[in-house]
Amino acid sequence: MINRTTAFAQTLFVAAFFVVPSFAADDAALKKDMTSVIALQGLPCGQVVAVKVNAENDYACSCKDGNKYRVYMNAAGRVVVEKQK
Amino acid sequence: MLLVHVTLLPLFFAAGCAAIAPEGSVAPKPGAAATQPAAPPAASTPQPVPSAAASPIAPRAAPQAENKAATPGTKTPAAAAKPPAATAPASTVAKPGPHPAAATTTPVAPPALDLAALKEQLKETKAIGVFTKITLKNQVDDLLQQFRDYYQGKAKVTMAQLRRSYDLLLMKVLSLLQDADQKLAAAIVSSREAIWGLLADPKKFATLEG
């Protein structure tokens, strides 16, 4: 029993090394996507450094220059970027 | 047994991660796909472009050769465009002395515009994220609406202003593509004038709309 528990713990530990980078890659892609969206709207940002998922297709973005935006898709299918205070 | 357990399970996890990681962008969400409006009419009807609207920028052979097999209905222009593009330089340096007829029998074919293939490649490219693609599509739709208003006499914009908007939008697309998907960027650059030819002609624009 102890052996199995140890093995399971070891497995989880090793697996964590593989899982974390994949999340990081997704996160980086999302930040890049949000950076492009904000730039395409002509709004100042520089680079998105943090993204929080509010809901599906609804993100809160923090920019390197301190600006914060809400990026979401409205009912008409348009991507809207709103500046947050 | 324990050793096998310890070594194999991480590999299964790794295999699962490997399936996710290559996406390279935000995973397309079902909501996004559902709420995305229909494709812009400009890209839905591929039209052969007359020589007057031909692109003077670059030969069309390379971009056309990249058209995917997923669009078989639009493959014929690519096949037709490739050989003349390869022979085009030959016709320009053809010696008129010994074979004057040879130069006349190899006319430079007008570069074919494959809007459907371009649209498909833009949809498929991993160089642009999902939200960015939707934003670009919104802006394309806005520009098409401006053209529509212009031709109906509703808008106060001039053709020069529309051209500026078109150039700006294309520049945005190219800036997103030029590093990560150079082939598609080149295809768009070479189609630039041909697409403008469709937009700037009221009759051709009307056929796009219909």
Describe the protein.
The complex is a heterodimer of chains A (85) and B (210). In chain A, 46% of the residues lie in helices and 31% in strands. Chain A has 85 residues and is α+β, with helices and mostly antiparallel strands. Chain A has one domain (2-84). A four-stranded antiparallel sheet of chain A has the order 1-2-3-4, covered by helices on one side. In chain A, strand 3 and strand 4 (79-84) form a beta hairpin. Chain A is elongated and about 60 Å long. Chain A starts with a helix and ends with a strand. Chain B has 210 residues and is mainly α. Chain B has a domain at 115-210. Chain B is 65% helix and 0% strand. In chain B, helix 8 (130-151) runs antiparallel to helix 9, helix 9 packs antiparallel against helix 10 and helix 10 (182-200) packs across helix 11 (202-209). The longest helix of chain B has 22 residues, at 130-151. Chain A binds chain B through residues 3, 7, 10-11, 14-15, 18-19, 21-22, 25-26, 29-30, 32-34, 36-37, 40-41, 56-57, 71, 73, 75-79, and chain B through 2, 5-6, 9-10, 13-14, 17, 20-21, 23-27, 29, 31-32, 35-37, 128-132, 134-136, 138-139, 172, 176.
